[in-house]
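Input/output pair, single chain:
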Amino acid sequence: MDAQTLFEKLRKVQEPKGYFFNNDREKVVDLLEALLTNKERYGYMACPCRLAAGDRDKDRDIICPCVYRAPDVAEFGSCYCALYVSADWNAGKIKKEYVPERRPPEKMF
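Output:
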């Protein structure tokens, strides 16, 4: 699978849920390619913005879309890596600000 195929597949599933890809297409393609690299490396699409352990059980919270996406998008309009954003974030209706890491320190390696 390539980044464009993954883009279309995920878009169809995520947009009806209110999660949109960032308008910065270059950033999105880079992140999708990194997800595909992690899938080859680990067998699952670990968030490319976090350090994966390579153990599916330990990384369950950061398999894209990670468990932190919903609260991040609800509070900031984008997830930690800004792959997924709200419609208002893309439209410039809300301020684009830094999204702090929600993953507990004990889960980081």
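Strands lie at 20-21, 84-85. The chain is about 40% helix and 5% strand.
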